[in-house]
Amino acid sequence: MAPDDVLDLFALLDGRGTVAWLLLRPGQTDTEVVVDVSGLESIVSALVSRGFRADVSRLPDRVGAVHRRLGRLVIRPCRFDAEGNAYGYADEGPLVLPAAAFDPVEVSLRTVRPADGTDPPPDDR
Asked: How far apart are CA 78 and CA 34, in angstroms?
């Protein structure tokens, strides 16, 4: 998935009240996201409503989703403990992500002006 498509995906999930994290691992070829297992049904429903075909046959370790234009997406459902550590399954075995892996990072944004030189609407800045 292209970066803009990933951002659109996160906006879709956020609109459904679901928090997701992008999972980046060496050698991965598919876009992978980590989600709280409690929101999995809502996530699958949201993806199907946007044209994804969902495959839940690999639960509990993952849900696969394919879109003809956007490509493949792997959803890793996890349970979170009181300290914020995530526990799930990966293809190679148990997936344990420490709470520190979910620390927010600051992203510097810049305003991009339309080609005609006008100011973009406030919601698009």
From this structure: 7
